[in-house]
Amino acid sequence: MTPEILDKINKFTRRPFTEDEVYVFSVILCDNDIDRDCERFSDEALETICRSFIGRTGISDHQPSAANQTARIFDTELITDPERLTAYGAPYKYVKASAYMVRTDDNRNLIAEIDGGIKKEVSISCSAAKKLCSVCGCDKSVSSCDHVKGKKYSGKLCHTILDGITDTYEWSFVAVPAQVNAGVTKHFSSEPVTAAAVYPALEEADNELRRDIRRLAYFVGGRTASDAAALTSASMNTGQLVSFKRSLENQRTRSEPMVQLRPDDDEKDGSEQFAMR
Question: Quick check: pTM over 0.70?
Answer without folding.
Answer: no
